[in-house]
Amino acid sequence: ESFPMQMPAGVEELVRRAELLKQEGNELHINKEYEAAVAKYVSAKAGLKTIIAWPKAASLTRSCSLNEASCQMQLANWKEVEDTCTSVLATDRHNLKALYRRGLAYKRLAENIKTEGSIACEAQDINSSTAGVEEDSGESRAKSLLELAYKDMGAAGALDESDDIVKESLSNLKDAMEAVGLDWANIPLDFPPLRMPTAAGGGMGLP
């Protein structure tokens, strides 16, 4: 669908309000007030829902989502990171930041399952007939999450091979996968890598 060069006054006003909220969120993010920053980004996105078809509104929504995910990472809210990045990737499949952050979220969720499983097993009677079954189930889910993590983080690494943050995280992920017997080299990426110049990657800072 094509749009006129000039946005209607009502659309411009909604975008302006959202940009102000995003700016406030960025300032809170910089000051490490992450929960307050998330609220600003969520409010900014809510104000754009009725005009999301406009390219500027869609771009601003995507930017707020990426910054929201960055805050949720700092709060260790990994399911929220996954969900927010998934919403970005639904319309921008090659978004480096969303791929990296969702990949990291999958890895952290896998680690949480492993930790919770160890605690649960310690709490159970060593002779319990269900202990081994529960441990196997948790281990299987953790491995599946690690595979998902590799698909996303591997794609991010293919998009920008010069990003040191992605390279280090991908190396750590491969070590974690090998430690549980997963062969990362045989796991295909979700899409054919679209290589881009380093400058287009945007780094891992706030958009």
Architecture overview:
The structure is a single chain. The protein contains eight helices and no strands. With 207 residues, it is an all-alpha fold. Helix 1 runs antiparallel to helix 2, helix 2 runs antiparallel to helix 3 and helix 3 packs parallel to helix 5. The chain starts with 8 loop residues before the first helix and ends in a 6-residue tail after the last helix.
Structure summary:
The protein has helices spanning 9-30, 34-46, 55-74, 78-89, 96-123, 131-159, 164-179, 198-201.
Topology:
Layout: H1 9-30, H2 34-46, H3 55-74, H4 78-89, H5 96-123, H6 131-159, H7 164-179, H8 198-201
Helix pairs in contact: 1-2, 1-3, 2-3, 3-4, 3-5, 4-5, 5-6, 6-7
Structural class: mainly alpha
Radius of gyration: 20 Å
Provide a count of the helices: 8
End-to-end C-alpha gap: 26 Å
How much of the sequence lies in strands comes to under 5%
The main sheet comes to: none
Mean of all residue-level pLDDT scores: 86
Helix content: 55-70%
| Order of secondary-structure elements | HHHHHHHH
Q: Uncertain runs with pLDDT below 50, 5 residues or more?
A: 119-123, 129-133, 197-201
The total of beta strands comes to 0
Q: What's the overall geometry? A: elongated
Provide keyphrases for this structure.
207 residues, mainly alpha, 8 helices, elongated
